[in-house]
Design brief:
single chain; alpha+beta; disordered N terminus
Length: 96
C-alpha cells in the first residue's frame, strides 16, 4: 500500500509491506513509541501506528524518514492543530 500526500511543499509517503514493515517520509517528530503504538507528527497530520512488537529501526528526523518493523494493525491520522495542543499540554505537565 502506498499513499502520497503533499502539504505545504512537504511530501509525505507511507509504504506498508505485508503489515510487517512500514517506511515513512515527511515525518516531523516522533512523539512517543512503545511495542504497541508509535505516535508521530507528519506533514499530513498526526499519525498513530498501532500493532504488536513495533520497533523504530531507522529514525532520520533531519530527512524526515522513519522505518518501523512489527505487525501493523492500524494507521490513524488526526489533525495536527487539535492534537498538537493536547500533546503539548500533556508534555508540558509531564516535564515541569
Amino acid at each position: 500500500m502506498e499513499e502520497l500526500y503533499k502539504s505545504g511543499g512537504r511530501e509525505h509517503r507511507l509504504i506498508l509491506d505485508n503489515r510487517g514493515g512500514l517506511t515513512l517520509s515527511g515525518v516531523v517528530d516522533i512523539i512517543s513509541f512503545d511495542l504497541n503504538e508509535v505516535l508521530m507528527e507528519t506533514a499530513a497530520g498526526m499519525l498513530t501506528v498501532q500493532g504488536q512488537d513495533l520497533h523504530v529501526n531507522k529514525l532520520l528526523l533531519e530527512k524526515g524518514e522513519v522505518d518501523i518493523s512489527g505487525t501493523v494493525d492500524s494507521l490513524l491520522y488526526s489533525d495536527v492543530s487539535s492534537y498538537g495542543e493536547k500533546a503539548g499540554s500533556f508534555l508540558r505537565r509531564l516535564f515541569q
